[in-house]
Amino acid sequence: MNVAFYQGKIISLFTYERELWQALYLASLNNKVTCIHCHTPVQLQLSIDEPPTFIHSQLTEQCLEAAIEMEKKLQQPEHGTTHVTNGFQLPKSRMISHQQENSHVWKKPEFVEAIPPFQAAQQTTSGNLSGYRKELCERGIQFDDSQWEAVTTTEGPVMILAGAGSGKTRVLTARAAYMLTELHYSPKKLIMVTFTAKAAKEMKERMATYPNMNQTLLNQLMIGTFHRIFYKILLHHEPKKWASPLLLSMDWQRQAILKSAGREIDIDEKDFAYDQALTQISWWKNHMLTPDLVKTTNPWEEKVLYLYKRYEAIKSENQSFDFDDMLLGAYDLFKKHPDVLSRYQRRFTYVSVDEFQDTNKIQYELIAMLTKSNNLCIVGDDDQSIYAFRGSDPSFMLHFDRSYPHLKKVILNQNYRSSHEIVSTAHNIITSNRTRFQKQLIAQQHSEQLPLMFYPFNQEEEATMIVQDIKQKIQKGHQPNDFAILFRTNTAARALIERFIQSSIPFQLEMDGESFYKRRTVRKVLAYLRLAFDENDPKALTDLVGALFLKQEVIQEVKSLSIMEDCSFIDALAKVNGIQPFQQRKLRSLPAKFNELHKLQPYEAIVFIEREMGLADYVKKQGNEGNKMDRGSDDVKDLKEVAKQHESLEAFLQYVDHMTAKFEEFRLQRSATNAVQLLTIHRSKGLEFKHVYLIEAVEGGIPHDYALEALREGDKKPLEEERRLMYVAITRAIDTISISIPSKRRGKQVQRSRFVREMNQLSTRKLTHKGGTNT
Ligand SMILES: Nc1ncnc2c1ncn2[C@@H]1O[C@H](COP(=O)(O)OP(=O)(O)OP(=O)(O)O)[C@@H](O)[C@H]1O
């Protein structure tokens, strides 16, 4: 039914503001929306593929008649009738401009139709199998001819260009097993570099099941991440210098050093993005840029460069080291002791590196140093290079043959994971990248399920629609772990996480970083709101002092004043002395403003804090801090969207506290086995799921705002990396991919992602399987 009773009046979904649907949905979860006839609670259903409707669990004929009667009445011309145009269900009486059409009415989902006809894969497995390949095949581990070529090419430099889902892991494990058990090479000769410790473990486990393999062989194999392997070498040669207690293994340990350096130049500890500074320093180190070689481009980087210098000096005084030092240390060791290097060169005559597209400079240099024998096998997919922010660069792979002119290339282009429809959609997008090897993946089977695009109003509705969709599918027999929801950034997942918390569906969160409500700028806004309620909230006072650009010492003064003068913290703030006159004026106006704030609804309150209470200045200063990925102003916009869903400040703050507590609880609960996976695209790399949802496929979402900004400044590289992220996301799907294109983001109308446009256009780029870049 389309009518219900809510807040003392009858409402119709045809005329009810779309902006308010989500609040209505939440109200219906709390039984506040009822049937107009029997007043039993009804639930608003916001689903991907059906127009919204109220679900009545105890529907009687009378209820239905009353609803139909009321719908008719409300559809009289003065109430507005509906008509359908281009798939939009539109109320006639409401003047709707073309712009508004997309956002104010529910729109039917659409399929990606730009799919070339499916051609059954050519025979890729030649004739009768024999020997080792046959043995493996009998164990259910088949190989196509290209895969087998990759397995058996053991001598000389080889690049395995492995498209998404083309069996890279299978090839790498079989290749190592082949060398050990068929060619009887000593395991001590092999080094296998993996991208994660988990991948190394998985490969060893797989190898253990191969014919003639035994644990003794596997135990002698040097397999692991760059850090693990080179740290082991360092420990062997310089055990005291690299003793594990000296490792700064935790972020907070490294940040503590930066903070102590920051105090030397008066950086405010609470308000500086030290986490970003650490990432920047690590980026410089991975590029082998010592402080004297760094060229800064803005004042923020200048500050970070100072911190970098001091960070290195303090570490060296304490004789401690970080993860980046492990690789730089190994490089120095080999440079200073050529004898040591040549020992390793003689020992490790067969080197393989997985996920080579994500290597950075120092890793590249170490591998180049080590592989004198030239028996180097690199495996990767330039289209899946997504770690530029950590210093990785696909050009190491693209230009690899410059260092190894006799390089043999093996291309794995059969995709064994996804349907033809999914593979073609991903292909339509990635071919717009200029810097890549030309290649096309070929799927093994096709499916009736075309990739789907759906159109929620905003992030809130997006999350609700996905949760409802998954719920319905689980009711029909799917398992929770059949589903994954991918997002570009952690903050994009806020609404989604909250909707899952409210649902009964088991889910697992794979993300770094804190809860949205603990983010620096969000905490500041919440501090104002909390103090409007409790003028003596000590935690909120600490955050407020930062937002007002006051030194942390002021906190003590405020607390003393409040005791001596028997007044609240807010009144005490107005009495603080010894500060600049303009600051004093600002503080004196605060008590009256907090009084005002108390009376406002959550959304209006945040606008008031921004405009009248100094938050805008704080956000602006944060924006100048050089952090392109993470903007405080975006956080405020996101928070406003949450605020819109609540009628009172009290309810809003209660919701925030509940969600923050639940977030921590769920984040710690890492062991859920049969759960929906919520993860960033970065974390989804190498994984596969039956059903994938990708959220926020809009300009600014993916591609991320920072890439669009770079593009405006003439730098196309970040946009290409975003395109690769989109490619990685889509190619995780085995059976279905559903792409969400909300009309609004952070309260503003947004355009669908340019990648959505690309995926709806059949790629006409000429295909070759011979390699060579598009440029
Ligand atoms: N020759 C083959 N025949 C049948 N299935 C295969 C074959 N090779 C690989 N597979 C299957 O295809 C799927 C994808 O393989 P795998 O995960 O190794 O791909 P990948 O290249 O590592 O993917 P990505 O780079 O996208 O993470 C797996 O389920 C694997 O078991």
Automatic annotation (TrEMBL):
Species this chain originates from: Halalkalibacter hemicellulosilyticusJCM 9152
Keyword Nucleotide-binding annotated: yes
Protein family per UniProt: Belongs to the helicase family. UvrD subfamily.
Listed GO biological process terms: recombinational repair
Record-given protein name: DNA 3'-5' helicase
GO molecular function, one term: ATP binding
Species lineage: Bacteria, Bacillati, Bacillota, Bacilli, Bacillales
Annotated EC: 5.6.2.4
Alphabetized PROSITE patterns for the sequence: UVRD_HELICASE_ATP_BIND, UVRD_HELICASE_CTER
SUPFAM superfamilies in alphabetical order: P-loop containing nucleoside triphosphate hydrolases (SSF52540)
GO CC annotation terms, alphabetical: cytosol; DNA helicase complex
